[in-house]
Prior knowledge:
Elements lengths: L5 H24 L6 H14 L3 E2 H6 L6 E4 L2 E3 L14 E10 L2 E10 L8 H16 L7 H14 L3 E2 L4 E4 L6 E7 L15 E9 L5 E3 L6 E3 L5 E9 L6 E2 L9
Antiparallel strand pairs: 1-4, 2-4, 3-11, 4-5, 6-9, 7-8, 7-9, 9-12, 10-11, 12-13
Helix pairs in contact: 1-2, 4-5
Amino acid sequence: MSITxxxxxxxxxxxxxxxxxxxxLMREYAKVGMSTKELDEYGGEILKSYGAKSAPYETYDxxxxxxxxxxxxxxxxxxxKNKILKEGDLINIDVSAELNGFWSDNGxxxxxxxxxxxxxxxxxxxxxxxxxxxxxIKGGVKIADIGHLIETEAKKSGFKVIKxxxxxGVGRSLHEEPENILNYRVRTNRERFKKNxxxxxxxxxxxxxxxxxxxNDGWTLVGNKGGYVTQHxxxxxxxxxxxxxxxxxxxxxx
Length: 254
């Protein structure tokens, strides 16, 4: 969305702080032996305490408050009482919500407990690449150039990107223009980032796959060639200089 007045900026800051805080608290709450359903219900309670509504639940009838993807799941993992978290699991939590007519989105991958399966390099790559990408965004920058930066940095780290998952505009709804802020360069895309707009930038860095495919449950995405995928996401306000990180309360870079 385009921020045209102070009240809109306040609204976006408020909902962004809520989703950021929810993500941070869920990450801290996750423990070995816990089900992803229990983790999700904890997140749902936090959103409710702020008067916020889960965006995937409200928008798409998603069967959970947040998407919680574990190990080989790339995105849109359904919280389940049968999915029990284990030491060394690669977990992704994606929290988006609506509050007072404003929407915000953020996410992060992390290793639970000891990194016994060596997932940390993939997590770090995703985190660092997102940081670098966001620091290069300002009004007038080509969306395709940021995609190029993300893919180039992924290759430097020995990884690939998922090409059919993307960042997007956010604000008055969960997904707005620009719809495809991809993790690679599309040469024909001439679109540029616009000053005073809010967008969700997200990395999808992977070990083997380049395409996410949907499982039979109609939600869960996995890599087309297996392996693992990490995602980190922030909602930002684009300016003439460095963007304002609206979801900074998630602490994913701390």
